[in-house]
Design goal:
The protein is mainly α. About 65% of the residues lie in helices and about 0% in strands. It is globular, with a radius of gyration of 15 Å.
Length: about 120
């Protein structure tokens, strides 16, 4: 059966399949909204990952802060960003990472009206 999810080159489409795939990863990242969980995570990241039942690939992506891989493994930017904030990263920092730009280049592109796709 063909997928009903549109393919949009250069973007991550977060659909039901990705949501299911990334459930544990997104649950972990979402838990970081609470200060006590942020402290527990910071004290022992590997143990915290273990408690959430991440796949080995998800665990590695979290521990290595491989932001793009997190999205590949079903992470929702809305949840992954909670981890980025813990690392004092801005949405512009992540935007740069996801587009292969520096943060400064990404901000400059945004201020100029965004990226050109054609």
């Amino acid at each position: 059966m063909p997928s009903s999810t549109p393919e949009v080159p250069g973007t991550y489409v977060f659909d039901v399949a990705q949501s299911n795939r990334g459930y544990a990863l997104n649950r972990l990242c979402g838990s970081l909204k609470d200060a006590a969980n942020r402290e527990r995570f910071s004290a022992d990241e590997a143990a915290y990952c273990e408690a959430y039942g991440l796949s080995p690939e998800q665990r590695e992506a979290i521990l290595q802060r491989d932001w793009t891989r997190m999205l590949d493994l079903g992470g929702s930017i809305f949840y992954v960003f909670k981890l980025a904030v813990l690392d004092k990263k801005s949405m512009q920092d992540l935007g740069g990472i996801f587009t292969g730009m520096t943060t400064e280049e990404f901000v400059k592109a945004l201020n100029a009206g965004g990226r050109s796709f054609g």
